[in-house]
Predict the structure.
Amino acid sequence: MNFQGSPLFGGGSGVHQGQDMMVDPNMLGSVGAPEGFHEGQNMGPVFTPNVVAEMDYRPVLVKQASINHLPVTACSFDSQELLWAGTQRGHVTSYYGMQCEKHSAFHVSSGTDTQPEVRQLLAVDGGVLSLTSTRLRLNLRRAQAVYAYTDSDMQQMQCMIQTSPDTIIMGGHQKKVIEFNALKGQVVNKYEVGEAGCAVFRQSGKYLCAGDATGKVTLYDASTMRKEHVLDAHSSMLSDFDVQRNLLVTCGLSTRMDNQLVADRLLMVYDMRVMRAMAPIQVDIDPTFLRFVPALSHHLVVVSQMGSFQLTDSTSVSQSMMIYPVDTHGAGITSFDLSKTCQAMAFGDSAGYCHLFANNEHAVFSGLDLPTEFADHPEPPHHEMHLMDEIVAFATVPTFYPANDSLLSEWPSSMMKKICRKPRPIDPEILRSMKVMHNVCCVPNPKKGRRNQAPYKIKEENGAKRQLSVPESPIGRGEDPFKTVPKEYQRMLMRYTKLDDFDFRHYNKTHFAGLTAEYNNSYCNALLQILYFVEPLRAALLSHICQREFCLACELGFLFHMLDTKKGEACQAKNFLRAFRTLTEAAALGLLLTEAEEINGSANFLTLIPRWHRFVIQQVNSETSQQVEVASDSPTKETDPSPPAQPEAAPEKKTESGGGKGRKKKNKRGKKKEETKEESKTETADKEGEDGSGEDSLKSTQEEQQEEVQRMEEISVVKDLFFVNSKSELMCRCGMDNSKDEQIKITVLGYPPNPSPGSEGVKKVTFAELVHHSLTSDSTMQAYCNECKKYQMHIKRRKVTSLPDLLVFDCNLSNESNLNFWKDQLRILKKEKKETSASPNNENTPPKPKTLCRYGNACRRADCKYSHGSERSTGATPGDSGDSNTAQFDPSYIPLGLRITMKDDGDLAVEEVSDEESMPKEEVERRELYEVFAVVYVIEQQDAGRHLVSCIKVSEPYHQRKERVTCTQWYLFNDFCLEPIEKPENVSLDLTWKIPSVVYYTRRSFLTHHESTVSNWCQMETLYKDPALANPKRRKMTFLPMQPEETLSKGDLVGLDAEFISLKEEEAELRSDGTKSTIKPSHVSPGRVTCIRGQGDHFGEPFIDDYILTPEQVSDYLTEFSGIQPGELDPSTSTKHLTTLKSTYQKLRCLLDIGVVFVGHGLKKDFKVINVQVPKEQIVDTVQLFHMPNKRFISLRFLAWFFLDKNIQSGQHDSAEDARIALLLYKRYRELQAEGPDTVRASISELYETGRRHGWKVPDVTVSETPAWADTDNMWTGQGHDSEDDILDQTPGFFESQ
């Protein structure tokens, strides 16, 4: 079983504190504790003639299985004299005999596997099988690969077992196990085993025993895989078990009172004849692995991952106290196997070593008389052959060319006629969509035929065309005639080879920004767009800033700022996804998808999206909430079980009228309570004063003031927006009830049970009834009763105390029965619509216009004859839908509006209404109107898997900022594709490919009750104070920080350059025509960012030179181009100013908000990798300054040589040098510009002419003298200082935070 991530797998040394450990004195006498072992180290002559006991195992040899000291995750003995070992990186090695001579080695995982560790090794007749999390591979014992098998149902594979000579069964942490023919490489069958899956397989007789991570062992019929028995062995987790004859013994983990997992020192024993538990076996070590020793009857080997093992008798009452140590030098044991002869044992540890133990000096691994398969020796080629040799290879016979005659294939020219086949006419659709870019005609591939192939027109002898057996599709061979997914809903794929020139405007005609899906876990783009269009949340996150490195609220604020500033272009959520991936809670909840799930679209989004919403909302709430001290009554008062009529409920209620009765802000609750309490105290004092008891009343008032306590209340805009406050009551049979307050972040819809076969049929159930049932449903659960002193069945009742501004519903359609329920309800609605349309009342209804108005919902003409949708405001009476273009859409099960009334008894009344229903003239207490705001759909696309889209109602503030119009409009967001849609299309359903996952409803006019002002957190102090991660005693200063007397203003020049490191290499393929096609682009991250002063006394001096620490694994530091050495990004060894990406991002945002002009070379890529949006008016790119249209772009090195006579980048790149050169080039450009535009054109023409003559290579020249800006008398260089402590006095305030 794989223990990666287990709380016990810590690699600790020794045994637990307080563990009584006895060691065999014979072993201590013969084997000493070495200082350290090396590869192939022999542990010495440990066997003596006096030791003949079969239970006396001694250490023989320690072998290094991984040169990188990676954990040995699997080891297995072969039927031949071989020992196999697999590592965490997917490297498999075999060793021969007791001396462990290296036999063969190979890799079993590809470079794209996110979990390449070898989970299990199994030797079969055809070779050795290696199992990883997503792949099964068969290799010959000589290392040649036979096949590698993957499957969509292989996502978290864990174990396998051989059930017949050619059949194995594989399982893992998933619902299905796979029966597989290992010789043919084919799947035989698949069986459902439940959510827990299988982690360990053992076989005994007719039973196939499977253990799972929940602590249970399930016994299946080996022939039918039908579940026969379930043994609940351990309360928390099962680590290993084994079976011999009728005994089944398990070891596992239990949970302490502090919710920590500890190894259970009791081995559970079961008699498989009666399926009952026997007396457990107590051991003296923490068991992790165990195996029966077939050579010794009823004996077990129990192994602890702390570095020891114990031999015990499963039938003896008094157990052996002899513990055998495994000298791992503090590393944990990660794998274990016992040879088939029981003469040898192998242990793999987390440091990459294999430890071999044996009970005699002539031990063998296999008792079978099978020769070990070694690699073939190469045979020398045959230099001569016999004419009668029948086995000679014909390929060795050279081709015979006649000396005088010609070959038969050389036909004379008189017998040949050259005929040119006419080219195939170009499709008019291709000519219509053709674009000219850089004198090259480009057109998207229509995919109606194979590349570089043209069909022949073959005619019969009589001239008639041959009839094709398969008719041509009317829409082309490359198209699927049965595809029902509209184009705008299909999965958006990007051509990475033309990423820089990708035309996003073709997919987005609006001014709103889309999101690209280049990085892992980009499935959440649809939900990020929804959160962005919640105006109060957007304003709160844009105003939020904190010092946490991986804060989702900060990253969402940065992302929302980019979405605000970009118009019609696509943004990247890479920084948010980077912080999202680092959260361990997200990984524990299964929110991080593997690369295979992303590419194939095989993830279960119907359950993933609600979990993502719940987690992100809770995380943002905890990061943005503030603790406010408010007055409260004495905490000893009893809780009133009646509906919430206390003062706290008043601020939760929102009024619908616009007469200035907005909802009270939460931060005013404390003040309101204090005023109410003061008034009540004053009235009480006045009454008591009239009765002549003023002194007594004064004393009682002082006592009440002393009893009044101050409590802390959590204030957060997220709570007001998303949390449903409710009170849950648990009532026991005895009448004892308990209540507690709950906060619901997303409401899961509950469905009625399926109708029985003999019932009347499916009944109509409205969406409002589902909402009512889900919010106020009663349920039964088992809980402990303090009155009965035991566990009893309780009735749980939920009462909603306040409703939020956004109601979020999980449609819960991952279950097939729930999906069928929606299909039945849609069938009923269509039937009702058909009956209504056929009624006589609709015969004289005038036809509605089908042509859409060009102005859409923004049209204000009352007499317009075109269709506008259902949200057009023309001055008509409220509630009049006007010209609604709903005839083309089927009726939807999702209503456009809901009216929710909170009753005095805690119940709710939910009704379906139109979203255009007029607001009541007078306020109705505890009644709220909601309208649909957004829907997240899972699109089932047959050829591309599943992906997500969202339909969002964009409100007026966003249109005012982006489109400069006042209207509301529905949009479809499909990654970077944005499309305006009609309102009925938002809730229109086709459950064959468009399945709703989450539905959002907003309170009517809730924007008027929230503050939408954004406060700017950017200040100049951000540039002054920046604590570094490296040790100040070791760090060398390479820049002069901003001084307090220095200021930056709008229009100031700042030179900028960034260097990158590679996190993932590019994946590309070579086409048949020789061109390269990028499958997956390389992922790069900022490694160094430098900003240079562009004016003042310190011109050319850097004030920011940040080396950025990344938490992800770096695949290539690109030192040749970036100048970054590997140790410079390590906090323990770096001598640079090492900081976080968020800290550098804040400084760049401050410069951006000040309005400085960034000068650099190739800034487009720099800003893209840093993931910041900079307006064009704040960018001066020397790539564009010295560029002629339709010509190549010129490198910075060539520009510096031509205009400045400087030879730069002769070695490694330096971002400070590149930024200075860019500033000087811009200074030179302005000098040329001052002389006139003709001078600029002439200089650039001469530049290109010189470049062509030199082949765009800089000739070997001598570097010129130091310019004025680099004069050491005027420029700070940091020389002469051993560390930054020497210059602390020169930079006051910069290191104050350290």
In short: The CA atoms of residues 58 and 357 lie 5 Å apart. The longest strand covers residues 927-941. The first helix runs from residue 25 to 30. The two ends are 46 Å apart (CA to CA).
